[in-house]
Amino acid sequence: MSLITTHVLDTTTGTPARGITVQLLGPEGAQIASGTTDADGRIAELGPETLPAGAYRLVFGTAEYFSSRAVEHFFPEVTLAFTVEASAGHYHVPLLLSPFAYSTYRGS
């Protein structure tokens, strides 16, 4: 299983956000992995099983998601920065998304 996983929920419809592209970027900004959310709004395999400690980013391509639904939106992408600690276990980083707001947390 990947060390990093994500889940996107569209809070305006109360449904999973299918088809959002997500990039995992490393401490130097290089892309480590990418994927697209499935029918349940999840990406279960996003990168390797282990990563060195450091600052990482998930970049969600939200413009394409809302544009494909003809929904006016404010954020063309959402970038979430977080820190991976040595031996801290799995990181699940959900995104709760609407056209004009978003929130996140460290999931389990």
UniProtKB/TrEMBL annotation:
Task: Tell me where the transmembrane regions lie.
Answer: none
What family, per the record?
A: Belongs to the transthyretin family. 5-hydroxyisourate hydrolase subfamily.
Record lineage: Bacteria, Bacillati, Actinomycetota, Actinomycetes, Micrococcales
Question: What is the top EC class of this enzyme, as a single word?
Answer: hydrolase
Q: What is its EC number?
A: 3.5.2.17
State whether keyword Transport applies: no
Q: What PANTHER family does this protein map onto?
A: 5-HYDROXYISOURATE HYDROLASE, URICASE AND TRANSTHYRETIN-RELATED
- According to the entry, every stretch annotated as the Transthyretin/hydroxyisourate hydrolase domain falls at 4-107
> What is the name listed in the Swiss-Prot or TrEMBL entry for this protein?
5-hydroxyisourate hydrolase
